Amino acid sequence: MTFEQEWAAHKTEAANTASGADGGANLKTSDAVKGGAAKALIEHIGPGTQKAGCAADESSESAARAFKGWQTGVGLENAHEEWGRQVKNLRSRLAWEEHGLRAAKGDFRQINHEVRSRLAQLGADRPDSQQA
Q: Is this structure's pTM higher than 0.85?
C-alpha cells in the first residue's frame, strides 16, 4: 500500500467516524465529564504533581551537597534545577488544560442555548405552529 493510499484510507475512516456513517457516534460533549476532568486536575492531578515534584528535592539536594566540589555534584545540581523547571512547566500545562476544559464547558453551553433559541424562533415562525 502506498503512502497516498494509506492516507486516503485514514481520511475516509476519519470522515466516516465524524459523520456517523460507520455506525459510530457523532461528536458529543458532556458538561459533567468536562467538569469532572477539571475537578480531577485541581483536586488530584495538580497536587499529586506538586508532591511528586517535591519528592526528589531533599534527596537531590542532599546528594549534591555530599558531592560538592566534584563534577557529580555539579551534575546533580543541574539535573535538580532542570527537574524543577520541568515540574513547573507541567503544573502550568495542567492549569492551562483545566482552564481550557472549563472554557469549553461554558462555550458548549452557550452554543446549545443559542441553537435552542434559534430553533424555538423557527418553530414559532411556522404557519402551522400558530393557532387561529
A: no
